[in-house]
Amino acid sequence: MSARESKHTPGPWRLFMTADGRQLIGIGEQTGEGVADCGFGTWRDGEEQLANARLIAAAPDLLAALKAAHDFIVDEADNRAAAGSEMSDYEREPRELAEGIAAAIAKAEGV
Fold this sequence. Notes:
Strand content: 5-15%
Largest sheet: 3 strands, antiparallel
Structural class: alpha+beta
Shape: elongated
Order of helices and strands: EEEHH
Strand order of the largest sheet: 1-2-3
């Protein structure tokens, strides 16, 4: 994966709730600066809204983990290929997995 500077707000992110813990206000940095306002509106019920917010808040960590997994898988596949043996179906699967991971990363980065 080529090293590109991310355009999103760096993580980690966290949920911000009302003082009574019943209403989601938004998602933001640890410093309290907002990243996404998702507490107002009637788009989703409370449990689904919170589940969506948790997923959004985990996005920077998930993206970093995907990038690391992609690089590891590609490096391992390259090492196997450098050994000079013909790739078996078992060895092709990691390449296909890396392609799927690369597509998810590109989607997240707007590439």
